[in-house]
Amino acid sequence: MSSARDYVLGTHQAEIDRLGLQHQVWRPHMLDAWSRAGMTRGSKVIDFGAGPGYALLPLMTDIGFKVREVRPLLFAVHPSHFTWQWPAAFVATNAARLVELGRVSRQWADAVERDFIALAANPDAILVTPLVMEIIAEK
Structurally, how many domains does the chain consist of? Predict the structure, then answer.
């Protein structure tokens, strides 16, 4: 039997807060995609958490969706940019959780946290976010 603690990143308040920050980072892009897709009140949206999307595009066409647009979203930002907070919150919130789960050593987590703090203090540092695929399709 699984429990809420089985979710790798946990369900504690710090993770809930981090997910709220993640939503703030991606919300403008989501609203832009909805606008380009012609979304209005009463429209239906499917939000797939699809990883790199290897299976998603074939699945969408197999179940009758017509893909209208595919756009990769990737950002390179400095520490002063709001988006920097997204991975910073992930490191601060989840390094201890990964140690707790035995996925990484305490030494490794401490080194990652130290390195990230040092990079955040360097105004010339650049962070490249993970790639997100935005797909607009209709059925």
Answer: 1
- The per-residue DSSP string of 52-64 comes to T-TTHHHHHHHTT
Angle (CA) 58 51 137, round 5°: 45
* Strand 66-73 relative to strand 132-138, pairing: antiparallel
| Pair 50, 133: CB distance under 8 Å | yes
In the predicted model, is pLDDT for residue 1 greater than 50?
Answer: no
- Torsion over CA of 13, 19, 20 and 21, rounded to 10 degrees? 110
Reported as a pLDDT band with limits 50, 70 and 90, residue 113 is very high
For residue 72, what is the enclosing H or E element? Answer: strand 66-73
Half-sphere exposure of 55 (CA within 13 A, CB side): 4
pLDDT at 50: 56
Give residues with Cβ within 8 angstroms of 60, minimum separation 6. Answer: 67, 135, 137
Nearest CA among 23, 139, 131, 138 for reference residue 69: 138
Domain that holds residue 107: 4-138
